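Re: weekly structure request thread

Next one in the queue (252 aa):
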Amino acid sequence: MVSAWASENRMVLGQTKVEEKSNEITAIPQLLAQLDLSGCIVTVDALNTQTAIAKQIVDAQADYIMAVKGNQGTLYEDLQLLFEGFETEMYQHVRYQTARSTHQAHGREEYRQVWVVTAPAYLQYLRQNEKWDKLHSLIKLVSVRYLPIRDKMETTTRYFISSWHTSAEDFLQAIRDHWQIENGLHWVLDVAFREDDSRIRKDHAPANMALLRHIAVNLLKQEKTAKVGISNKRKRAGWDNEYLEKVVCHKD
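Done, posted below.
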């Protein structure tokens, strides 16, 4: 199943089943077509960084932020060489924006810094830049994660392309928000709903149950009176009909 996640509202907006002998690349356009994307920022991982998907997002009056990895032909290489050239010159005479953030949680410290260039001259360094609809921003993100317990430091460099006209701070936040779906949805389904242990396999039942779980996640996340986790909310809803009514009907 491929899901669309609204990071600001922390809700599942839709889902599409990936057909057998296929992959997400064919499912994502179907999912996007179900949604009103006007005015939204759509973030996708590197697998779905495709020119057709970028065009579909732009045609829907939205903007895209797309991760770039080695599966994109020359795109990754061009971005890597471009930013390495900037760094060699210490960004002298380069029109760019940068923003940084620090975060501490779960016994680790994380430092992030993003660099953004938007000048048309820089876009020309991409050998196939004209294939990306309304391409405007090229982005480099460096994440440094320090684990004090293991005295270990990990550094990750990632690249992105985007049609969005905004600040480096906004890009830094949007890229971070993209990974909300891992903790806000996938982790909840695995731990609170034990989805991976489900033995439902026949016909349309797996897709139907996935839809029901997504609805349940949305309802439980919108219920704010119980200051406990999703798993405990779920148990309480099974034991207490008044609480169940509150969850389903959004009663205070």
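The beta strands are 2-6, 11-16, 41-44, 63-68, 97-105, 108-117, 137-147, 152-162. The mean pLDDT is 88.
Next request, please.
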